[in-house]
Amino acid sequence: MKKALVLMMLAGLWVAGPVWAEGSAAEQWQQAYDQVIHLMGPYADSVAAGLARPIKCGTPWMLELALTASPDKMRPAGPYDRRDTMSFTYGTTHFLLHYTNQGADSIYQFNRQDSVTGVPNFIFEAGKAAERCWRRLVDTLGFRAPLSDGYYNGGTGGGGDGRMDIYFINAGSYYGATVPESLQATLPQTATAYMLMENDYYGFPGYEDDRVSALRVSIAHEFFHTIQFNLDLTETEGSGDSRSTAWSEMSATFMEEEFYDEVNDYLDYLHYFFFFPQWSLRAGYYNPATNWQRWQSYHMYGAVVFPLFLKEHFGTAIIKEVWDGCASAPGGNWWLATDVAIRNASAASLNLRVMFFRFALWNLFTGPWARSGEYYPDAAGYPNPTGSFQENASIKRFAREITAYPASVTIPDSLQPDNLGADYILLRNTSAFPAGLEVTFDGDRTKPWAIQIVGLPVTVSDLGQTIFIDSVTYDSTVTTIRIPNAADFDKIVIIPSVISGNALRVDYSLIVAPLGEGLLQPNGGERLYPGATYTILWNFPDSVEDVILELSLDNGGAWSTLATVPNSGLGYAWTVPSTPSDSCLIRVSDAAGGEPSDQSDEVFSIVSVGENRIVDPYPNPAWVQKDPFITFRGELRASEAGSTGDMVVSIMTLAGEKIVSLREAASGGAAEVLWNLTNESGEIVAAGPYLAVIEFAGMTEVKKIVVLR
What we know:
The protein has 13 helices and 34 strands. It is of the alpha+beta class. It has four domains: 358 residues, Neutral Protease Domain 2 (Neutral Protease, domain 2, Orthogonal Bundle), CATH 1.10.390.10; 118 residues, Jelly Rolls (Sandwich), CATH 2.60.120; 88 residues, Immunoglobulin-like; 96 residues, Immunoglobulin-like. The strands form eight sheets. Strands 8, 10, 11, 13, 14 and 16 form a six-stranded mixed sheet that branches. Helix 2 packs antiparallel against helix 4, helix 5 runs parallel beside helix 6 and helix 6 crosses helix 7.
């Protein structure tokens, strides 16, 4: 009951989904039925020959038939329903396989038979694959077993007994399909089902000499659909040929890789995801009448990288938790269930929005940009970020490539990101701007955005030196991000992500311009703590040798000199004084003559510490790729600012095993301990949650921290 309650609470944040096509149930049923006949009927092979690649799965059409059918149409007769024509059966513990050696449905190499069972090798291997999937998913991971159909037809079920039925037919353009058969009156979200499998995989690219590998991944995919149908048959959005079954299909494709990672069938579908990153993870269009519709019908299979991403962070068990969440409420809510699952797996330190933000970053490092040991394990085999879509060379991964500055960038409707979608903007020739660049982002202010900026080194092959420059959460104002070290990079990538649950094609624009001269930070609104180290940054011409830095605590009424330092471009590490004020300004000037000179645009604050306290660790979570440290900070009340003492931080596993212990002395009213995410041997720790036991000023607090990769 707790999960259902959480889902209802989250529904207030993730409101109505995209608007999908509508029509009467009868029209939708007929449309789906006609599509099934078109692709699985007498002309299936000729239809398949006209497609760039086989359609991964026919289950979305079968699901549409079930969800829009009247009672008399729950088992429609037709060219795809050829169960009564099967001549042979082969049974395993949990499955009954039906096949024939006659006509177009004759299985692959019928006469090559297993020496022990006497059944064709093709069928024997199918049975082995099915049982392997059952053992792993049901017996080991604890998924709810598919519903048995043994309770009807006098105990004979739909195929002879209560075991799961698998029928081998000439499915033409499909690897396979799962058909809901009998909806449950007491559990309307669930149904019995049977599996349809392609009989020979003739003409399927890459499988000319290895039909069994195609069979195995298809079994893994379709069997997971039978499990889904005993959890939530209604895990869809919309209706008709625009009904989205995105999560059902991407998670079923995930199971192919989970069981048969050596096959890598999913790689053939990644182009349809990586070259359309602006499309929502929730999108699924399965009527391939036009190129765009066909590409989107493949998109949800390429989106398998999302459950793969979740697995890399939380393990395979999170897929089960998401589906358990789907089962807690009818209708499409997988993104809500995913949010709950992420919160549970991360001790409430993460959520779907944060993880999608990270997911968008992972999707940059593919093909030749892949980094060994980081991001997706198979990323080197994923599409090249600077390549072209394989079916249309004019379609690129990057929504825009900018080579000259200043540049004003608008994004056409077709490239604007949907909810749970992202764009990628590539800045080239950035090393030509030693003074830096400035990015001004202006987007639809009613939608929550996240913007990441990543710099790639001049030696592009050395991607181990990739630097995560900045990230911001865009809210209701124009956002400006300064990149003073733009010249350090060969390329810079801007990644705007929409992290709302219901928006389509969200508008935004960018201005990228050379950075002007003057003070960069602090520039107004900052809250600085006494004793903290803060870097003052400015940008002056190379002709200026030294600069004077000054501080005002009264909005410019009086100024005191902080330091005279070289104009090196490296900034100045300033120790924040223990003088509280909410009217602070910094001024930087040429030490030789006062000009150029610039000061903070708005006031910033030096915060008064009223009580001794231990500040929450930050950043938390920490990403190994971009966060060099987690900072632990303790602050003393003003009356004790001159006191000395140590802060001790012990990093522990959740089981209480010590990873490392760190100690720093207090100075200037505060103490800071920086943990570099390593153990006592200097090795980066594994991703996951940890405990930090913090001792400071007579206080002991335990904080939960999370390390992610």
